[in-house]
C-alpha cells in the first residue's frame, strides 16, 4: 500500500529532512511564520486545547538574552540563525476552551480546574504541536534546528511567566554550509510495533 501524500512531500517532510546546525543569513519573514502557523494550527490536540505558545526571538538584544541560557554546543548556532522560536506550553490554556471546544464549554472546569491536570495536558499537547511546528517549517521549505539543551528555568524567567513552560528552542532558516550531520539510524517497524 502506498501513502496518499506525494513522494516529494514525504521526502521534504521526513525522509530528506534533517536537523540543521548552520544557516544562511537569509531572513525568515513574518509572512513565512504566519503561513507555517496557519497550516499547523489545524493539527489535532486533545479537546482542541491548542496550548502551544511561540516567542519569536528576532532582535539582537533578545538574542543576547537567550544565548547564555543555551547549552554550550547550541550557543553558536542560536547566535547566528536568522530566526529563533521558543516553543512553550500555556498552562492556562483552559481559559480558551469555551471558544476552542464550544460543544462542551464546561470542559474548562470539569477536566482542567486543577493546575496539575492542566500542566500535564499542556505539556503533552504543546509537545505534539511543537512536532507539527517543525513539520510546518519544513513544509515552508525552511530548515529547523530544534534543541532541548537549554536552561528551562532561565528561559522561562527571561522570556515567559509562571504560566508558560518552555519545551524546545528551534532555530529556523535556510540551511548553511555543512548544515547536516549524517542521518542517524532508525528503529524498524517490528522493533516498535506489537499487535495484540
What does this structure look like?
The chain is built from 9 helices and 4 strands. It is α+β, with helices and mostly antiparallel strands. The chain has helices at about 5-15, 30-40, 60-65, 75-80, 95-100, 105-110, 115-140, 150-160, 190; strands spanning about 50-55, 85-90, 145, 165-175. It is globular and about 50 Å long. The mean pLDDT is about 95. It has a 4-stranded antiparallel β-sheet with strand order 1-2-4-3.
List keywords for this structure.
four-stranded antiparallel β-sheet; 15% strand; 196 residues; alpha+beta; globular
What topology emerges from the helices and strands here?
Elements: H1 7-15, H2 30-40, E1 52-57, H3 60-66, H4 75-80, E2 83-90, H5 97-100, H6 107-110, H7 115-139, E3 143-147, H8 152-159, E4 164-173, H9 189-192
Antiparallel strand pairs: 1-2, 2-4, 3-4
